[in-house]
Specification:
The protein is mostly helical. The chain has helices at 2-5, 7-19, 42-51, 56-76, 105-111, 137-141, 145-156, 159-167, 181-192, 196-214, 216-231, 241-259, 271-306, 308-342.
């Protein structure tokens, strides 16, 4: 959930956690080479202090607080907003439910990166007792078209403009809570602790990851990985992320061509039509699976043979320590701010 509502913090936490995997580089692609317990780096320890103790009750409290802040923000802009009850939404999946360990070569051989495959199988999830109903639906339905547009602009920000700018190649996606309406403000306040000084610190944290990847030692080991992938018949790669992203982009094309971006939808498809679309999507995804598995297995083996993870851990730990030594006071204050926002 934090990954959805606070991308800057959550993405950095994930990427830095990936840096600490000495046995293979655990990351979003799951190719960590063994799934062993990852030792946290100096900066990662602060993330652990801020977000480590996390459970469903805590999540529910935070989600309720987000909705309360959204309501306060919307009231300031002249709208009545009823906080939504999100306690029964979402699905929970755990790596403990997999038949093989995520990040091992065995996982890559069976599921690739887990994009076109389904590592979790058909897990039964408890259905909510009642269908979700937006408590603001009637309120918005009674508005004129321009009033409704203003309501959603205040709630979510001008996300369509951001998407159009990215599609036009004008800018890369950079999450900015200030551009995401009352939802962005509420999520920033609850999950990130709020404050301009926090945003500035987070930008500097992201820069640690950038400097890690730009380190000459990483350039050398990345070159070795690229060469290894080429020997496996997978060419045209420049960074370690490129292998997974190549598959991800193909999967995105399948979904975009099947579902579009929602801008031209005039009515919801029938259950039968939706099932037909889903079947076509799965058929096209199945056609990518062999390439995904081949790529993921080669990726995993080349990370190991090149020593990518060990170098990544060394460089990352070194730069994290430098950052912590220079910003220890700010980091301690940030942890306290997050704790206060979550309480």
């Amino acid at each position: 959930m934090r990954g959805a509502v606070a991308p800057t913090v959550a993405l950095l936490a994930l990427t830095l956690t990936g840096c600490g995997a000495g046995d293979g580089g655990a990351g979003a692609d799951g190719a960590d080479g063994g799934g062993a317990e990852v030792e946290l780096g100096p900066l990662e320890e602060y993330y652990e202090k801020a977000y480590g103790e996390y459970d469903e009750d805590q999540a529910a409290r935070e989600m309720r607080r987000v909705e309360e802040v959204v309501a306060e923000c919307m009231a300031e802009q002249g709208f009545d907003y009823l906080p939504m009850d999100t306690s029964s939404t979402g699905m929970s999946m755990s790596s403990e439910e997999l038949d093989v360990e995520w990040g091992t070569e065995e996982f890559a051989e069976q599921y690739g990166y887990g994009m076109t495959t389904n590592p979790y199988g058909d897990l039964e999830q408890p259905m909510p007792e009642e269908a979700f109903v937006d408590p603001n639906a009637d309120y918005v339905a009674a508005m004129s078209e321009s009033e409704a547009e203003a309501f959603y602009l205040a709630l979510h920000g001008d996300q369509m403009a951001q998407m159009e700018a990215m599609e036009a190649g004008e800018e890369e996606f950079v999450y900015d809570w200030e551009q995401n309406g009352c939802q962005g403000r509420a999520q920033h306040e609850v999950y990130e602790g709020g404050g301009d000084e926090v945003a500035s610190l987070q930008e500097e944290m992201v820069a640690v990851w950038d400097r890690t990847l730009e380190d000459p030692r990483m350039t050398e080991v990345t070159t070795a990985w690229v060469s290894c992938m080429g020997d496996a018949g997978i060419t045209g790669l420049a960074t370690v992320d490129d292998a997974m992203m190549r598959i991800s982009e193909k999967v995105d094309v399948v979904h975009e061509e099947a579902y579009g971006d929602g801008s031209d939808v005039t009515e919801m498809p029938s259950e039968e039509d939706f099932a037909a679309i889903e079947a076509q999507v799965q058929e096209r995804l199945d056609a990518i699976t062999e390439e995904e598995i081949t790529t993921a297995v080669a990726d995993h083996r080349c990370r190991e043979s090149s020593g990518y993870a060990d170098v990544l851990e060394t460089v990352s730990t070194e730069l994290q320590q430098e950052f912590v030594d220079a910003h220890r006071t700010e980091l301690e204050a940030w942890v306290e701010a997050v704790a206060a926002a979550r309480s």
